[in-house]
Amino acid sequence: MTAQPRIILNDQNAIPQIGLGVWQTPSEDTADVVATALEAGYRHVDTAAVYRNEKGVGEGVRRSGLPRDEVYVTTKIWNDNQGYDATMVAFEKCLGRLQFDYVDLLLIHWPSAYRGLYVDTWKALVKLKEEGRARSIGVSNFDVEHLERITGETGVVPVLNQIELHPTFQQRRLREAHAKLGIATESWSPLGRGKLFEDPTVLRIAAKYGRTTAQVVIRWHLDSGLIVIPKSVTPSRIVENLDSLSFRLDADDMAAMAALDTVDGRCGPDPNTADF
Ligand code: NAD
């Protein structure tokens, strides 16, 4: 297997640049899927309380036989558990389902700004980091205003922001803000949930390298310095996606991919108008 690239975060911890996403992976299949991915060479899994498959993630890690400290696991606090005390309770439940005594990365899943609780939630994550039960802490779906608020009120900068990002929705404004604040960018729905597989530019580049369209898109994330968490439950695709590590896009192809950006390319909700 090709060596796994890692990104050094602002707290000096390292995260494997590619991971396996498990949103919509059925809970009863998750242990198998995670064990398959770890056997294929993945060392990073992205779950969340709301995915209802943390138990399977923990089981898959143990079934792999790998030492706990060789697998990077992220989970997330769901919106209805926001607030300091509720987050503390919810996190204990995450650890209980995972059967871990720490997670590598804990995220606030959405700002859910209408609740007015994300600053208190962030304070709970800061405490959990101090206690060592969340080795790193970050956020997901935060906009610049949300990032500035938590950073301003606590002095603690999230290590990363996990956001919807793919070649048809490249989030340049937010990525520039991340760069200024020292926050890494992690791409969710990195394949655009499959909508890029028929794109003529991606098809042309895939033919040039003798690669699949999924590999070209994942490679674009890697060559853009992004952390990427493609989801699949199919063993051959799990392997195929990881094998994106074994080639590089040249500057012309990166430029052609850059030109695929659109202003309205989201697949998922806009965090600024989401009402959940
Ligand atoms: P994705 O972009 O990873 O696309 C997944 C789809 O592509 C699936 O239908 C899968 O079958 C297909 N696919 C994967 N590999 C393929 C291949 N090689 N060939 C053909 N088809 C392939 O979409 P996603 O699951 O929405 O996002 C990935 C991960 O991001 C999630 O599993 C989750 O961990 C995370 N996520 C986070 C948030 C958030 O709010 N923080 C939101 C959505 C997703």
Largest beta sheet: strand ordering: 3-4-5-6-7-8-9-10
The CATH architecture category equals Alpha-Beta Barrel
DSSP summary: helix tally: 10
Please give the number of β-strands: 10
Order of helices and strands: EEEHEHEHEHEHEHEHHEHH
DSSP strand content? 15-25%
Structural class: alpha/beta
Report the biggest beta sheet as strand number plus sense, adding barrel if it closes.
8 strands, parallel
Low-pLDDT regions:
none
What is the CATH H-level superfamily? NADP-dependent oxidoreductase domain
Overall domain count: 1
Give the overall form: globular
Mind telling me the C-alpha Rg?
A: 18 Å
> Which molecules other than protein and nucleic acid are bound?
nicotinamide-adenine-dinucleotide
| Overall pLDDT confidence | 97
CATH uppermost class:
Alpha Beta
